[in-house]
Amino acid sequence: MNIYKYSGYPRRNGSVGIRNYIAAIPTVGCVNEVVSRIAKHVNGVVPILHHQGCCQLKPDIGTVTRVLEGLGKNPNVVAILLVSLGCEAVNVKEIEKQLKVLKPTQSICLQELGGITKTVEKGIKIAQSLTSSIPNVKSENKLSSLMVGLKCGASDATSGIASNPAVGVAVDRLIDNGATVIFGETTEILGAEDVLVKRTVNNRVGSKILKKIEEMEQRAKSMGVDMRGSQPTPGNIRGGLTTIEEKSLGAIIKSGTKPINGALEYGEQPSGRGLYFMDTPGREIEVLTGLASGGCQLILFTTGVGAPQGFPLCPVIKISGNRNTCAYLKEHIDVDVSTIISGEESLTEAGEKIFREIVKVASGKKVKAELLNYDTNGVNIDIYVKGPVI
Amino acid sequence: MQKVLIINENDNVAVAVQPLKKGDEVDINIKDQEGVDKIRVRQDIPFGHKIALKRIKKGERIIKYGQTIGKATKYIDKGEYIHVDNVESTKGRGDLQGK
Prior knowledge:
The complex is a heterodimer of chains A (390) and B (99).
Chain A: E1 5-10, E2 16-17, E3 21-26, H1 32-41, E4 45-47, H2 58-73, E5 77-84, H3 92-100, E6 105-109, H4 110-113, H5 116-131, E7 139-142, E8 147-153, H6 157-176, E9 180-183, H7 193-197, H8 203-221, H9 234-238, H10 244-252, E10 260-264, E11 274-278, H11 284-294, E12 298-303, E13 316-320, H12 323-328, E14 335-336, H13 339-342, H14 347-362, H15 368-371
Parallel strand pairs in A: 3-4, 3-5, 5-6, 8-9, 8-12, 9-11, 10-11, 12-13, 13-14
Antiparallel strand pairs in A: 1-2, 1-7
Helix pairs in contact in A: 1-5, 2-3, 2-11, 6-10, 6-14
Chain B: E1 4-5, E2 13-16, E3 25-27, E4 38-40, E5 50-52, E6 61-64, E7 67-72, E8 81-82, E9 87-88
Antiparallel strand pairs in B: 1-2, 2-5, 3-4, 5-8, 6-7, 7-9
């Protein structure tokens, strides 16, 4: 096997899918039930259920629109069924226009079709016709067409000394091969910002990262409480992480050592290749959604005490450096790097193991979350909004 | 197998990569101010948690990864267990505003 190439589905716009999904996207949470029923009837249709899209302030509606578009644009998506209520704040026509130029996209509206029964019937018919158009021809592709997202969840002290540094090694390898990598979790940079800013390609990128961190800290402070108890989480503290600074330093190690080319808004697609920062919170569900919207075909997820999450549109590779977790939660962990702590494997060897797994998964190997059918119901999705629901 | 892991040579804490028992003697392969490269563990320390490599004064910075992870809220003796009872964060402290 050539470890510098993977076999994927070439798309019209030059991107490459590593999975083939039809995305059924509600433009507002009000029609989740409709989308859910359609998806249950047609194989290969992934419901993208979320709770946003109306009664929110303009910046948040902008974010929701950007993310719904971004999820539709994700290379793993071959075709899209948009389902709208008809009176939501999100601009459905605009989303449809943006997606239509890229891939087969159809739109249905509950208020126009006359209720849930007719909308579900119509949706099933459209979804079935979209299924028949799924291409199955694969081609060999360079790693430069790969975009990989990073996330750590249910961290403990092993995350910062084993799985995150090992992922950092794999990330450096990906970047050396022309791939793109996005890391987020703004909260978990707090306390490690100086180290990160030194790696940005220019002051503009550095200032934007600092601004995002400051905004996040201000929002936490505005509640008039100590962030401890929320970040690090009680589980982190039980695992041995004392402060957010400690968690952050252990977290940013997973971004490797390469220059940071840009700072993205939540869910924004990078304009070039290489390493990017994305403004996201720390919570799994919003991070995975943001990374998928950014265009990541695959996500690396390091965990200490163990997390089960997958994401409906992207394979999520679980990596742990905690020997107990690797044994006890075996059904969730794809790559065991506890060997770093026991001294059986070097950091470089463990990083290489992760790199090879990335190429295999990109070529179609199923990750544990996929084998477990984690979230084929599309509920492990949510869009990060900063303002109130009004 | 090693008992503790020191990530950066400037760190004043190490991570227990095995559960440590009070009274254990741990080899750290780094000599302190007095030329000693062993530490007597003063409290039980769970796997993944931290042990003080030096005496740390109240208010002094706690260093891991070669960076500050917080400050000591009381005097910490060499070999003591380091966690939320004797270290506090310096970030996101809305509770300290206006004080």
